Here is the input.
Amino acid sequence: MSDVVLECEDLSRVYEDGDKSVTVLRGANLTLLAGEKIAVVGSSGSGKSTLLNLLGGLDRPSTGKVLMGGRDLSVLDEKTLCRVRNTQLGFVYQFHHLLPEFDARENVAMPLVIGGTARSEAWQTAEQILERVGMSHRLTHRPAQLSGGERQRVAIARALVARPDCVLLDEPTGNLDPHSAAQVLALIDELGQDSASFVVVTHDPAIAAHMNRTLELRDGILQALN
Here is the structure.
């Protein structure tokens, strides 16, 4: 675990609210190594999702920079940034954001199809990763036909299908029952044995306990807990 996958340096984010400036993140520093799993905890409104959006290139920092494979995301043009997000980063949101008109296999295959992979190959790869997350029996089911835990597993499969270097998860068990949450936790544990790295924003102590280390955001300041 010596290769640096993702890092941020003196990262800050300030939002303008009328004539007021609201500082959400203050000089955050983070280094994520290959195969490492990091939990980010903190109270609601502490800036956890803001940090995740900055790390994923979905938002631009006010100061500082985010480096993915040594490249500063803030200086990339939108086309290049989209390619980085599609191939090197995987995202799992609290509300999964699956496309309702597509079935599980199509949802998972979408990043590959967008990236130019032939549909037949994309579907085959999607089927393989869905089998790995225990969803091979639900390939042709649409999100409305799946339970909350099943939808979250499909979302994780979609995040992993392009074999990204880093997976960002925002409250992955926040809307799940205890059984489904335990399944997602076991899946993260299993997948953490691969080379992919994970940054998990969570309120769940069980999730944080399974990470290699935990960081806390408090008053916009990111600090190590262990």
User: Anything to note?
Assistant: Residues 97-163 form one domain. The chain has seven helices and ten strands.
